[in-house]
UniProtKB/TrEMBL annotation, chain A:
Lineage, broadest ranks: Bacteria, Pseudomonadati, Pseudomonadota, Alphaproteobacteria, Hyphomicrobiales
UniProt-listed NCBIfam families: 3a0107s01c2
Key word Cell inner membrane present: no
Name assigned to this protein: Phosphate ABC transporter ATP-binding protein
Keywords in alphabetical order: ATP-binding, Nucleotide-binding, Phosphate transport, Transport
Matches recorded under Gene3D superfamilies: P-loop containing nucleotide triphosphate hydrolases (3.40.50.300)
One biological process term in Gene Ontology: phosphate ion transmembrane transport
Source domain of life: Bacteria
Domain ABC transporter, first and last residues per copy: 27-269
Record GO terms (molecular function): ATP binding; ATP hydrolysis activity; phosphate transmembrane transporter activity
Similarity field: Belongs to the ABC transporter superfamily.
GO terms for cellular component: membrane
Species in which this protein is naturally found: Aquamicrobium defluvii
Keyword Transmembrane helix found: no
TrEMBL record, chain B:
Function: Plays a role in the regulation of phosphate uptake.
SUPFAM superfamilies for the chain: PhoU-like (SSF109755)
Major localization listed first in the record, in broad terms: cytoplasm
Subcellular location: Cytoplasm
Calcium keyword on record: no
Protein name: Phosphate-specific transport system accessory protein PhoU
Homology family: Belongs to the PhoU family.
Keywords, in A-Z order: Cytoplasm, Phosphate transport, Transport
GO biological process: intracellular phosphate ion homeostasis; negative regulation of phosphate metabolic process; phosphate ion transport
CC per GO annotation: cytoplasm
PANTHER family per the UniProt record, alphabetical: PHOSPHATE-SPECIFIC TRANSPORT SYSTEM ACCESSORY PROTEIN PHOU
Organism of this sequence: Aquamicrobium defluvii
Keyword hit for Transport: yes
């Protein structure tokens, strides 16, 4: 990991804009690049993630948006030939520093995946798993409280409160995804990464998750990858457009979907690509 | 701008743009015929303008219907979204232009009973000519995708305002000269005001078209030269 002593010009400008709007920067990517073996998948990405905002990453398949998302909690470490260059900070701290505890990092930067992936355990244990391994609950009563508040924040508690000991895999797709969000929340993360969280859900379950994202924004910073332009427009405050491994354009969502600056963004969001 | 991946999307957009063109073309001929029917005077032509207003209304309804279906079906974004919303708003202005042309035509019989002085007929005809140029110009500049042309056209509305002020004063003179002119001149004053209002609708269309092309709104204030509201010092 190359450590850069100074911020990039792009980020410096964006940071001033954010400061003027009283927005705090939670995460910062500077000149982030990713290689899979010899092949470079991401090139010099400069991106600021604003606290308590939803940042949507959009772009055609293979553009690097999920690759970038996975850099934000070092999920790419799990891929043997993946190499990340540049710098990513969380509250100013380099997350690729040697002294960083990756397990702790992932408790601060949680992740929700495309396909709901509850553990083959009870609903209760799905939520309790994270707090248990991180030692966040000292007693059964503590753990009960964590499970209940996480399920409530994920908008699932009322639907499952009478069957907490039943398997999480028995829930509907939408409920499973909200269970995964509850599981991510249970370890009190600061940032939640979502990789196409609604792509396997029906429109009603999607609407519930979108409503949830809007509520979660109050307490968490969210970065979401989505293929749905409408979803990005509905849930996010900032949108970043990726193409061929490059960050093409980033800005307020409202502007990105009504009058984007870059022709590639324009072509992609209006369905004129390829 | 390239084609959409879904070709039917382009066809839907073209259909809406075609309807806007049809409405512009109809608006132009309605204004032209209404003015001609007033100057000649020609009751049959005036009647035709009145009946054309129904065609204009049905074009607007069709456009609204197609635009709403397109939004529902395709969820347009960026310039596509601006083009659809712009078309709906332009259609509203064009429909009003049709109404104003019809209002002029409906006064033809009332004015026709008295003789219009030749100079006055020429003044109104000149004013109508300017308005027609504006109606034609707005669709040409929009088709040529020229934001600069649209700004120029919007500013040229000033010329119509100046002409309206002059017609207003001319009419006052005729009314003061001979009280028997008052009825006809009042009708003509309404006709001139309708032409001036048509100019304002063309300005709205130019502003909308500018937004569609650039995504930016033009400043609200523009030059206004209608001085008929300015008190004239007592002689």
């Amino acid at each position: 990991m190359n450590v850069m002593s100074e911020t990039t010009l792009e980020n410096a400008v964006n940071e001033k804009v954010a400061a003027a709007a009283n927005e705090r920067i939670k995460m910062r990517g500077e000149k982030v690049g990713v290689f899979y073996g010899d092949k470079q998948a991401l090139f010099d990405v400069d991106l600021l993630v604003r606290q308590n905002q939803v940042t949507a990453l959009i772009g055609p398949s293979g553009c690097g948006k999920s690759t970038f998302l996975r850099c934000l909690n070092r999920m790419n470490d799990t891929i043997d030939n993946a190499r990340v260059v540049g710098k990513i900070t969380l509250d100013g701290e380099d997350i690729y520093d040697r002294d960083i505890d990756v397990v702790e990092l992932r408790s601060r930067v949680g992740m929700v995946f495309q396909k709901p992936n509850p553990f083959p355990k009870s609903i209760y244990d799905n939520i309790a798993y994270g707090p248990r391994i991180h030692g966040l609950a000292r007693s059964k009563a503590d753990m009960d409280a964590v499970v209940e508040s996480s399920l409530k924040r994920a908008g699932l508690f009322n639907e499952v409160k009478d069957r907490l000991n039943e398997p999480g895999t028995g829930l509907s797709g939408g409920q499973q995804q909200r269970l995964c969000i509850a599981r991510a929340i249970a370890v009190s993360p600061e940032v939640i990464l979502m990789d196409e969280p609604c792509s396997a859900l029906d429109p009603i379950a999607t609407a519930r998750v979108e409503e949830l994202i809007d509520e979660l924004r109050e307490n968490y910073t969210i970065v979401i990858v989505t293929h749905s332009m409408q979803q990005a427009a509905r849930v996010s405050q900032r949108t970043a457009m990726f193409h061929l491994g490059n960050l093409v354009e980033e800005g307020p969502t409202e502007k990105m979907f009504t009058n984007p600056d870059d022709k590639r963004t324009q072509d992609y969001i209006t369905g004129r690509f390829g | 701008m390239g084609a959409h991946t879904v070709t039917a999307f382009d066809e839907d957009l073209q259909e809406i743009e075609g309807l806007v063109r049809d409405m512009v073309s109809l608006a132009r001929s309605m204004v032209d015929e209404a003015t001609q029917s007033l100057i000649v005077p020609d009751s049959a032509l005036a009647q035709r303008v009145v009946s054309e207003d129904a065609v204009m209304d049905s074009l607007q309804r069709r456009l609204d219907d197609r635009a709403i279906t397109l939004i529902g079906k395709r969820q347009p974004m960026a310039q596509d979204l601006r083009a659809i919303v712009g078309a709906i708003r332009m259609a509203g202005d064009l429909e009003r232009i049709g109404d104003l042309a019809k209002n002029i035509a409906k006064r033809v019989d009332a004015v026709g009973q008295s003789t219009m002085p030749r100079e006055l007929a020429r003044s109104i005809e000149d004013m109508a000519e300017l308005v027609l140029e504006q109606v034609q110009g707005v669709i040409e500049e929009y088709s040529a995708r020229s934001p600069e042309g649209l700004v120029r056209l919007r500013d040229e509305d000033e010329l119509i305002d100046v002409r309206y002020t002059s017609v207003f004063r001319e009419l006052l003179t005729y009314m003061m000269e001979d009280a028997r002119n008052i009825t006809a001149c009042t009708h003509l004053l309404f006709c001139a005001k309708n032409l001036e209002r048509i100019g304002d609708h063309v300005t709205n269309i130019a502003e909308n078209a500018y937004y569609v092309l650039t995504g930016e709104q033009l400043p609200v204030h523009r030059p206004k030269q209608d001085e008929t509201g300015v008190p004239v010092p007592a002689a």
